[in-house]
Design brief:
The chain has 331 residues and is α+β, with helices and mostly antiparallel strands. It contains eight helices and 14 strands. The longest helix has 18 residues. The protein starts with 16 loop residues before the first strand and ends in a 14-residue tail after the last helix.
Amino acid sequence: MADSNDTCFACKKNSKLTDEHIIPQAIGGKLKIKIYCEACNSEFGSSIDNEISNRFGFLATILDVKRDRGSLQPFDVQELTNKINLEFDGQKLIRKTPIVMIQADKERKLLKFADVIARSKKELMNIIKSIKKKYNIAEEFEVSDNKHPGPTDVKHELIFDNKLIRRAVTKMAYSFMCYKIPPEITLSDSFANVRQYFIVGDCSDLACANFTHTQFMTDYTRPLHKIQIALNRLDNSVVGYVMLFGIFRYTVLLSDNYISRFEWPCLDYTFDPVRQEEVMGNPNFRHRPIKVTDVLHPKHSKDFVIDEVTKGFKILNKYKSQIEFMKVEPE
């Protein structure tokens, strides 16, 4: 297992190391290790880790996943009928901004009509106060409650595969390998390419969304996070498998030139972010090795991917039964 020392496992400079959440804490990750310097950690946090929070944080909010720090963030949705932008905080829908419609004369001195839809009584009173001051109005406005009881049909943009996400899941797999494997291996030149990839991203992709060779990762029952590292001595490759919320699955080429005289034991970590507990599996399980081409270029149709993602969202209904999750519509 890697330990705190003065060598950053990313930039390899001598520096004080800081805590790294192997799976970002914004989506419920708990496993921590000191492997990256403060500069690298800060850069990762504002770029690739932030992308994970932006793309998958809505699931943490819906499932009320506990975080080490900070609070669950509302996420944007759009009401289907009137195209109104809303926020969902895990419990209720609220407008992102109030609606203020005003008709005035050309000199903007005489108010003819004002219609305000506010998100709270306090906000409404402040808007009315501002309108009265601007148009020099003394009389009171007519105010009424107009609550929409629901249900409300909304949509949320779902993106689970792009350059930043691939770099982020690569860092997760590499970080977990650093947690399990001695530093003299992980800091070796065999893993130089993967470090360059998730640090800078100015080279060919070393990760991709992969639903074909990763079905062993999910039990189609729980929204688990999972990382597994596999060594294939026949082609000198080290492959990382990453799953988020039991839905989104990725493969990572950590190395294609690592030579080992010994087999590795199963390197696996499975965590339930809802229950905040590690799930113990079979320590003797070993997934059959896959070729490098299958790691980076899996053969799966769009319909197959949609079907797998849809199965994943059905898992979430068991944890949040009052919400009917979206149908997955491809673009």
